[in-house]
């Protein structure tokens, strides 16, 4: 294959152990939406289940169904708002539902039965402005849900808007609102959760100081965060590498233009490698003129516009390394733990690592390695059969 993403499940094991230790009494809820941020939801989920993780989250019901059909047996919360006519999918596949409005609560109350209850996580909008009940409306809605035979009050939760910013005071404001709401409840949810990766790393214990807390970690499982400084607060390891092969080599004379728009020209005799990767694979076009790759042990610039299926790398003078060391079929590293990193690619593309890994297209094959030894048995992992391999 011209381009391959390899995922290190051993590094994933290391990351979830690191996060679980940081989360202390809170259990990790592993966020696996968008195919585990492009890493492959099923292999990631199986590895995490093997590490004792019992709580998972996805964005949409079909993502939860996919995990159930792969044999995952933990709790799966669908974070997005439900459509009332899709609630049977939740009961059929044992998915937990987000209740984000009074109307959704009524639909959940009507649909759930004592034989087939719906497990509801009531979402409170404390300042994100995306989904959720206003704190003023929530106690009455939660009271009615808790009283319904066909509903299990599985959770009450909220989501931070600025937890990635270490200096923001807004998470504390959101927590003030959330705690005030919790004080007004006359029902006890199975669990309470607020923290994403950012809050786990910047807000600290207050974001998990609840009875039966969870932390909803996504990007940190994959060894990343919104910014490198945030990721480096814990010894996380990026779990994905993207590599592409050289499909063509040539030496060009000074002045020779390269790629669409002829925006780059060689200033000296140059060895140019064409790589089999482009924006059709998720390697962002906006990184044109900025990106570097690692090839033959050196970092070399991507030159000219990144195309849909290819991009070009300047190996420099044709009579010197690395040009003399590169043959057709050799691999270049586009990102990986040793650099360039996914954070670098995100910078070049003026975005965050989340978008880089989510945008890796389905035509890029994912391969998996698992080097770390398995976790020793824990009381958690023995209560639940591991999913079938
Ligand atoms: C995606 C998501 C998360 C996980 O966020 P990370 O920053 O990746 O840890 C947590 N909660 C909600 C509601 C989300 O949508």
Question: In short, what is this structure?
Answer:
This protein folds into two domains: 9-221, TIM Barrel (Alpha-Beta Barrel), CATH 3.20.20.10; 240-369, Lyase, Ornithine Decarboxylase, Chain A, domain 1, CATH 2.40.37.10.
The hetero compounds bound to this protein are: pyridoxal-5'-phosphate
Strand order of the largest sheet: 2-3-4-5-6-7-8-9
Percent of residues in helices: 25-40%
Question: Which CATH first-tier class of the largest domain would you pick?
Answer: Alpha Beta
Cα distance spanning the termini: 26 Å
Number of helices: 13
Strand percentage: 15-25%
The CATH superfamily of the largest domain is Alanine racemase
CATH topology of the largest domain: TIM Barrel
**Overall CATH architecture of the largest domain:** Alpha-Beta Barrel
- Let me know the average pLDDT: 95
Layout of secondary structure:
Elements: E1 3-8, H1 9-23, E2 27-31, H2 33-37, H3 41-50, E3 55-58, H4 61-69, E4 75-78, H5 87-92, E5 96-99, H6 102-111, E6 118-124, H7 138-147, E7 151-158, H8 170-183, E8 191-195, H9 197-202, E9 213-217, H10 228-231, E10 240-252, E11 257-258, E12 264-265, E13 270-275, E14 292-295, E15 298-303, E16 311-316, E17 331-335, H11 342-348, H12 353-358, E18 366-369, H13 379-382
Parallel strand pairs: 1-18, 2-3, 2-9, 3-4, 4-5, 5-6, 6-7, 7-8, 8-9
Antiparallel strand pairs: 1-10, 10-13, 10-17, 11-12, 13-16, 14-15, 14-17, 15-16
Helix pairs in contact: 1-3, 6-7
Residues 31, 33, 79, 159, 196-198, 216-220 line the site of pyridoxal-5'-phosphate.
């Amino acid at each position: 294959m011209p381009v391959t993403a390899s995922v290190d499940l051993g590094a994933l094991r290391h990351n979830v152990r690191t996060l679980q230790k940081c989360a202390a009494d809170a259990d990790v809820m592993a966020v696996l939406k968008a195919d585990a941020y492009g890493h492959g939801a099923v292999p990631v989920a199986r590895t995490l289940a093997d590490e004792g993780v019992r709580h998972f989250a996805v964005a949409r019901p079909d993502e939860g169904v996919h995990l159930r059909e792969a044999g995952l047996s933990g709790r799966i919360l669908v974070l997005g708002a439900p459509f009332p006519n899709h609630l049977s999918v939740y009961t059929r596949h044992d998915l937990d539902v987000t209740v984000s409005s009074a109307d959704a609560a009524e639909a959940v109350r009507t649909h759930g039965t004592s034989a087939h209850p719906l497990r509801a996580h009531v979402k409170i909008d404390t300042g994100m402005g995306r989904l959720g009940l206003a704190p003023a409306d929530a106690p009455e809605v939660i009271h009615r849900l808790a009283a319904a035979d066909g509903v299990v009050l599985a959770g009450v939760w909220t989501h931070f808007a600025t937890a990635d910013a270490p200096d923001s005071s807004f998470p504390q404001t959101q927590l003030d609102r959330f705690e005030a709401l919790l004080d007004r409840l006359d029902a006890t949810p199975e669990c309470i959760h607020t923290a994403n990766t950012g809050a786990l790393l910047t807000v600290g214990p207050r974001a998990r100081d609840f009875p039966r807390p969870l932390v909803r970690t996504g990007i940190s499982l994959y060894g990343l965060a919104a910014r490198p400084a945030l990721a480096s607060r814990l010894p996380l390891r990026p779990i994905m590498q993207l590599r592409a092969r050289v499909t063509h080599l040539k030496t060009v004379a000074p002045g020779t233009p390269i790629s669409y728009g002829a925006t780059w020209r060689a200033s000296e005799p140059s060895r140019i490698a064409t790589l089999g990767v482009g924006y059709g694979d998720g390697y962002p076009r906006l990184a044109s003129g900025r990106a570097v790759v690692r090839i033959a042990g050196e970092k070399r610039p991507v030159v000219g516009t990144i195309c849909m299926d290819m991009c070009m790398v300047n190996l420099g003078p044709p009579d010197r390394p690395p040009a003399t060391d590169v043959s057709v079929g050799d691999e270049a590293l586009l990102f990986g733990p040793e650099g360039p990193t996914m954070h670098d690619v995100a910078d070049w593309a003026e975005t965050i690592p989340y978008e880089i890994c989510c945008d890796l297209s389905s035509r890029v094959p994912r391969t998996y390695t698992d080097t770390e030894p398995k976790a020793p048995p824990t009381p958690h992992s023995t209560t639940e059969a591991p999913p079938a391999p």
